[in-house]
């Protein structure tokens, strides 16, 4: 993408601003890049010269929370954690909790179909979206979806728009499903002699038909980075860590069953139902990205593989690091087979550029994901950065259909051109 | 729809048969109606003269069940209950369980996005479909979706095809998500003095942030029909019944919390963790439809409303029965706000026809659903029977887009014309 300032920035104060901007852009054939908090990791919200940035972060009201229907009506600029906090006042939760939950917006989450730690049990953003108000490329305001939990009237346009990364329309309102907030949480942290052992233990939980609400893996390099940042002693206890949380009425008993599986191969194991201790244990996972980023700029990748291939995937990432001479940290939503390999960039790398070795490592990681029957992006989106990989992942006939659907929504091609599909 | 035999019936023995049939139908402009077990309730699989019936029920193999990845690969003619039984051998379940689970097929479930009793907790068919093999109208074989639990590469064509009632393509293979099968189930049956009390109690469970796996309501007329069929004594115990099941590690304790809410207003309440007693209690719900159908032919309707409007919806259905002089039985997936009003037809009604009073009652019920912010179909589909209601439910711009997407998939308009959208 060419560098330089965009043509204009429109800070939308309401739906009419969005409609007028898109109608005018369609008329003049001007590209529009919709933007929320700008926390995306695939470049979908980055604008080039000649493009209009449509900032909808100002549409940030929680319009309603209905505790009986367990739905929220929100504008797209609402910060995800703020919605979850508002839901908590009614004993409810908004389940999707991407790593950037404290700063990202619901609109951005909808654009990328964002996941998060609770995804293993409670699903991703698409599972929480019941209805959307969307401004189409020509300025038409469209309502899709329903107010009810179930409904099969017509084609699922709501699900189609979720994850479309700003290429089909601009979301200006959403009806979101809320869920009862678990009041009991039981937590375990287990250390293992190798990342392969940790991955096998994660798989073992599935084989025991256990389905914890949280199942996160952190590798040795990441543990060392956390120790360096926080003065903790994770690396002494093992070469990989699993964080497991069970919730709901049977939390303690479910965690006990999980701990029995973990104990078979763990080098160290701690369990608790005390929220303060749990927060301390969970910090090992929460600190992973800050600890890596404290060491410099990084490429944050986002592959997923079938759960049975998790150990192979992590082993493959480590081999790629050795092969390319790059510094790669890996943590994973192990319950979903979703890995985040983080490639640290040399501190002397030009800002805005990716050195060839890091780019090769990233490409090798994507190829690895596909070779294991996985995907190049589990929850961050294709954006700008992975666009050439989309063609390697998808059936060409499916990609062709997607592009024709895009053309049907946006005949002038003004909505986030060159991104996602 | 005009009566009479179809042009031809093709019993597909494999994917190539489906491809050749569709390619030839596209070439000649001949309509194709795909059919599985024919258990649908909205007429989507009914063919008219001049149309080809494409029967895919012979593609009925379970190709693989992977207990570690917790996915199944199946052909569309697999009976839903058979997949669930096969999954049970691995301690897993296939969650969607429509009323017709013992006879309906996975392909039909995908076509209608079928729900069922476990939907309140475990979601509907769309939530269980990871990938599809689909033959397009021109005979192209398309693969959409992924092998992983998460993935955001490209637009969600999989979700678009689920629920499209045979109008976008013919599903010839599916990768389905399986879930751990709950080993503990706790069951309660509560009776109430009125259906309004029962609906309020169901709502009260939500307000207490309880989310049982099953939450079913049966009204007085239906209880009387069950008593007549089975010699049970439900009607003596109350004018409405709630069946509540909790599952998982905390099942007993969760049910206890639910029972405390129910006990506030129930006229009778029984709880159990004994599977044999539970099966007996659950029979009150399972026998509902057979008991009504024992009294003659019936229209099985399928509306949903926001959960907070459940009591109003049931009261409204009872008022419509009085107003139209029709015999209407109501049971409901109360946890989803999904009602099944069953309109019994006069025994002297011409087969294949609906008497005017029954049709008026059905139309009034659809209008009621929309007036309460609901939908005319929660899980059966639009099919042939509710097509004119689709235009009243959906935003005209959304319906227009859906029809353009349909035209894009099927330019010759051969796939189930006149149905669904």
From TrEMBL, chains A, B:
This is FAD-linked oxidase. GO terms for molecular function: FAD binding; oxidoreductase activity. The keyword Cytoplasm does not apply. The lineage of its organism: Bacteria, Bacillati, Actinomycetota, Actinomycetes, Micromonosporales. Residues 2-181 form the FAD-binding PCMH-type domain. It comes from Dactylosporangium matsuzakiense. SUPFAM superfamilies: FAD-binding/transporter-associated domain-like, FAD-linked oxidases, C-terminal domain. Its cofactor is FAD. Keywords: FAD, Flavoprotein, Oxidoreductase. The keyword Flavoprotein applies. PROSITE patterns: FAD_PCMH. InterPro entries: FAD-bd_oxidored_4_C, FAD-bd_PCMH, FAD-bd_PCMH-like_sf, FAD-bd_PCMH_sub2, FAD-linked_Oxase-like_C, FAD-linked_OxidoTrans_Type4, Oxid_FAD_bind_N, Vanillyl_alc_oxidase_C-sub2. Pfam families: FAD-oxidase_C, FAD_binding_4.
